Amino acid sequence: NDHQLTQVLLNLVTNAEHALEGQPHKRIAIRAADMGATTEIVVSDSGKGMDEATRLRVFEPFFTTKPGLGTGLGLPLSYSIVLAHEGEIRLVSAPGQGASFTISLPAAAGNASAPGALDTASVPAAKARVLVVDDEPSLRKVCQRLIASMGHECLTADSSASAIQLAREHDFDVVLCDYRLAGETADLVIAGFQTVAPHLVARTVIATGATTDPGVQSLVERHGLQLIAKPYGAAELAAIIQKGP
Hints:
This protein is α/β, with parallel strands linked by helices. The chain contains eight helices and eleven strands. The longest helix is centred in the first third of the chain and has 18 residues.
């Protein structure tokens, strides 16, 4: 999926640009090589580099070395995309020695029926309209960019009120809704949908890091909703959109 792989490269180059801030010598290099069974793409920089503790955590969701600037989701999403393409991503870095990310992808198409194969992350024939409801601005932005890179339309809402208003104005194929919003829960979103657009209830997927929370379980069971654990990857998001209601 060229849209998703482009997103991976954009994430790596953006990170490299941040790593060069304050460095006397600024250099970003991108190269690709045919290795026979695999194709390798390497993005490297002459930045400040990383210590071992940071290097071991860069693919963890919400971990960031750029407070206030980074979302902590760029590299985890990139990792998920590469994995969905049956590839791998490796990092070599040390303090003062820059960083080098190597992406290895199969040179030939993989088995489409294998778990995690490319078909679960490919763009479906029909363009979908997705609503993401979350009170975290950075997460809304990342989801919107990622969904757009898959070829779909994405609108976002930060509260039940804004989600309900958008439901009045638009129809959505999928609604991805965080359970805990600022001062409220997804129960209010579902209640609003029941009033203005009842068919959207069945199209809503609840996203939360607390899947065993009694409130979450009650809402999901009461309305027969799908449930996805946070943090989720690009392949999971693509599969949800592809499956639809």
